[in-house]
Amino acid sequence: MKKLELKFTNQDGKTVNYSIDKPVEPVDTATVNAAMDEILQQNAFTSSGGDLVAKKSARIVERIVEEVEMQ
């Protein structure tokens, strides 16, 4: 399953991650940047280390699970 992971910096200088399941692909960089800017402007989320103060990064993360046969 793929996720879009948004990373922000909070007031304490720590990284805060938010994940969105099943992102639209291909990912539109401008749209992701605009959404992250809007999250910051609206002060939409907070963290244990205070408000979010800056964008850090965004990435697509894919997790592949392969079962191992047990004998």
TrEMBL record:
<protein>
    <recommendedName>
        <fullName>DUF2922 domain-containing protein</fullName>
    </recommendedName>
</protein>
<dbReference type="InterPro" id="IPR021321">
    <property type="entry name" value="DUF2922"/>
</dbReference>
<dbReference type="Pfam" id="PF11148">
    <property type="entry name" value="DUF2922"/>
</dbReference>
